């Protein structure tokens, strides 16, 4: 953890793309926003897309305009990669344009030391970047076998809520993103702040392995 993360504001970019899963995105986002409500200046959260064109979230229920595109985005300390329905995720894996722009940008950021935090099937989107190689990783239970097939150099963990590999955090399905975000708040700023957010959420945490 660098000095900026310990004592200053941490820039967190939330990747958004067409058909992104709503709770994958908004669960962790709200954890970090609540951290700012309780402890001002903890996190600077913003969204980033391939372009600044509006994207449609899962089910086409709403359109969201990214704060930045990948060319102009404020330098992040951490990038959150929410997942999507597995069918869409597999399409993005085969989408050369998406891989050569968005995923290439994420790979470059990882090389610079930026923390990558994937939620749910978001880890599958990283399968062609090399970022997952030689790491313990996880994803939604529906895609564990597929994640293992696409990442033979990785160790796929089952029956865990999330896996922290320092510069890479991956989570199990959907609500596990909330658990991992709370864990990171505690890691960065202490248990008292994380517990306060749990109280504000009225969130019923359960015992889990990670």
From TrEMBL:
Alphabetical list of Pfam families matching this protein: DJ-1_PfpI
The Gene Ontology biological process terms listed for this entry are: regulation of DNA-templated transcription
Q: Which SUPFAM superfamilies match?
A: Class I glutamine amidotransferase-like
Q: Which residues form a coiled coil?
A: none
Query: Which parts of the sequence belong to the DJ-1/PfpI domain?
Result: 11-186
Q: Which InterPro entries does this chain map to? A: Class_I_gatase-like, DJ-1/PfpI, INH-QAR
> What name goes with this protein?
DJ-1/PfpI family protein
